[in-house]
Amino acid sequence: MNTYRNSFIHTIKEAPNDAEVISHQLMIRSGMIRKVASGIYSILPLGQRVFSKLNTIIREEMNQIGAVECDMPHMVPSELWKTSGRWNAYGKELLRITDRHDREFCFGPTHEEVITDLVSFYTKSYKQLPVFLYQIQTKFRDEVRPRFGLMRGREFLMKDAYSFHESRASLDDCYHQSKAAYRAIFTRCGLQFVEANADSGAIGGDESVEFLVVAESGEDEVLVCESAGYAANVEAAPCQQNQFNFETSVHEVPAFKVVDTPKVRTIDEVVKFFDSPDVTPATVLKSILVMTNDSPIMCCLAGDKPLNETKLTKVLGAPFRFATDDEVRAHCGASPGFIGPVGLPSNIPIYLDYSLAQSLTYVCGANQNDRHLTSVSIVRDVKLATTNSVMVDIRNAQAGDVYESPTGDQRGTYTSQRGIEVGHVFKLGTKYSHAMGACFTNQQGKLTDFEMGCYGIGVGRTIAAAIEQSHDEHGIIWPEELAPYDALIINLTPKDPHVCDAVQTVHDFLVGHGLDVIVDDRADSPGVKFKDADLIGIPRHIIVGKHGLSSNHIELKHRRTGEKVMVPFDSLDTILN
Q: Topology of domain 4-238+416-467, per CATH?
């Protein structure tokens, strides 16, 4: 019999001060985890049962679509990461070590390099494809600011899967099967989630989708257009391609003027300086000079719109960096804060965000220190006055913006939701196989790079997200399939032989019907036991005591609803419903 006393369950009344979100607080208080160091936690027996439940769900759904489980090393030699080009590109989050022979390794945050090397060693022909492998393994990331318990740690459990294909069509098929498996996993976990288009980030590739559990504490913002059935994170959500009214813009706008604006550099300072209802952050032009391949490019947005660096990278087709103050002065003839697209040297391309169609005129820098221009028409003074300007989508979409499908047949307005990313699927294409020389002989007898996909689930993050989404003021409310136990029997008088016999009978009945059961047989007061039961969040509480047994009854409480039912001792089937 599983009891509190032999299950190493230790609850605490107060959460530590560094537990900022409810999942972190409740996991500590319920005795699921204990902090060892910043971002590093021991998973205690109660927590391990939840991890085991989720891992079983993941394995069942991954096996169902033909994935095969393996286990790769935690330590990865630097040579593999250098071959892929990520050793330096990944950044300081890559936890690097040097062994006694001065050989460099990293603790794997993800395993694209290892799996590519592994599969290419054994797979030489298209006849051996596709290959689909996965693992559930501890990962390492040297986070600059670990926080939120298991949601952003330096050591964490992840399911990562990788697929290898002879064709794009085969990759597409696996990608869609994996998305369906993820839907099944998160649905079985009882989670409300959003499937959102996303940027591929450091993993790379040309298409990816995030799965996010909806929760107010979520770090990620998701924009949803319900009428069009579309969702995306803010980095990937497209903005509508607004069109300029050329005729109105050219003929109804007065000529721009040069205005002295000493020491007025920022958008807020410009708005305050002009002190006019016509000059707002939305009508001040934000001009940003960036460098790509050592060449300058000016990016212009409405002042109330944030630049989306991910979109800009894709538009440029190359990495970029922001120009230094000296580079701004050298290329534009003025200091930062006083630059703009009017009269810019002809060798500098101008990227105009679609948001600039929202106003007929703007205030912008004059490319002269301490001067701005007013009544600037984007059409007349930039597009028609230059040959190197282009309209692009380079800003973050926002709630209230209009979404239009690529085919133009679906349209609606974005709403904003907060979410916790728990899963991510990527089409990698040939990014890693080409870089690492991983190829096979195709049906025409030619060596060809593998088409690859990768598919990740944050196991600890999913558990934390389930708590964020399902709790009350008393504690956790576990979804049925994730609960550490299906039922908790509370023995109110553990020294009474008659009550103990009844507890044993109920226990054996439930176990005989396939339920995981634990018994609280501690010598504590009923109040302590009831509080701990609510804190831990097991779905069914069965309370057995002398008073109930005197009328041949026990009490059943459903944790989710709080409903209490008196169950006749000779009708225990009621507990199973």
A: BirA Bifunctional Protein; domain 2 (3.30.930)
